[in-house]
Amino acid sequence: MSIFWLLLIFCSSGGLTDAKCKFPAIFNFGDSNSDTGGFWAAFPAQHGPFGMTYFKKPAGRASDGRVVVDFLAQALGLPFLSPYLNSIGSDFRHGANFATLASTVLLPNTSLFVTGISPFSLGIQLNQIKDLKAKVLEPKPYGNLPPPNIFSEALYTIDIGQNDFTSNLKAIGIEGVKQYLPQVSSQIAWTIKELYDMGGRTFMVFNLAPVGCFPAFLTELPHNSSDLDEYGCMISYNNAVVDYNIMLNETLHQVLNMLQDASMIYVDTHSVKLELFRHPKDHGLLYGTKACCGHGGGAYNFDPEVFCGNSKVINGINITATACEDPQNYVSWDGIHATESANKLITSAVLSDSYSHPPFPLSRLCDLHPIG
């Protein structure tokens, strides 16, 4: 039995009714990998089949169900994080989610409607939490706001940078992207220092995924057969991600030396995702580099002309990118984002402490709830 299945059984068996946890809240910063509805609160337009597995309707996630931060909150005994941008029904007593789909670390120099990059970059997300804290500290705070001490007690999660890496990749190539990646890691480090000055003390930073295994990029990015490894992933692009992840880890260590009594955890979800893409069947899945929701079939089932859930007339024919009937068998939901099944496996690995550097014993800091 694989380690992933052992971890999943551990995290899914037995309930803890009065579980306690060191962290009463989560503040999350990121992009579509951890967005729980921020983008679609700002630009309402999401439709099915997103959310088909768990929510049974679109729920602001770029998946068929829950994303990693949903499972992480569940494991810590917290409710799903309300998007900061959602003005209806939000409850910030246990944290907030500042992530939005298509967000970047670096400030975008173009419009959402031109390139698809979100205006809510990491710097904007940082300003949003500062605004939230200012409202909490007002003499008579209103709404479902947390207590002032929440900012020093919360767990801060940061999962962003993928769009900085991939948005210009086709146009300028790997070497072009590498020119500004040091700015990306430095900006993440600077943001953490700002959050530390606000009172934050515990930070989990997720590294970048192996984009060379993504169905979308296997379809869109230039490469030849010699650049594919034995698992069908692009070697050159994945090597570039590894180089960035090493740089990010080194940058975080440098920052940690400047922050007294802070915990900085580098979370290697890259290794988890790479394992799932390479050996999906070892972890209860069937398809690694093939998208569940897409069009075109074949090895990748991804069509850059028509994204998941959308329709378009191409050569006089109305084409629709539809979802498979069994997303629980796929690693990739829509060619770019993970399915709920993959996200659950990723979270189980994170909770195991095997992929955290330095080791971060969440199971000793919290009575973990099941993530079924």
From TrEMBL:
<protein>
    <submittedName>
        <fullName>GDSL esterase/lipase At4g01130</fullName>
    </submittedName>
</protein>
<dbReference type="Pfam" id="PF00657">
    <property type="entry name" value="Lipase_GDSL"/>
</dbReference>
<feature type="signal peptide">
    <location>
        <begin position="1"/>
        <end position="19"/>
    </location>
</feature>
<comment type="similarity">
    <text>Belongs to the 'GDSL' lipolytic enzyme family.</text>
</comment>
<keyword id="KW-0732">Signal</keyword>
<dbReference type="InterPro" id="IPR001087">
    <property type="entry name" value="GDSL"/>
</dbReference>
<dbReference type="InterPro" id="IPR036514">
    <property type="entry name" value="SGNH_hydro_sf"/>
</dbReference>
<dbReference type="GO" id="GO:0016788">
    <property type="term" value="F:hydrolase activity, acting on ester bonds"/>
</dbReference>
<dbReference type="InterPro" id="IPR035669">
    <property type="entry name" value="SGNH_plant_lipase-like"/>
</dbReference>
<keyword id="KW-0378">Hydrolase</keyword>
<keyword id="KW-0325">Glycoprotein</keyword>
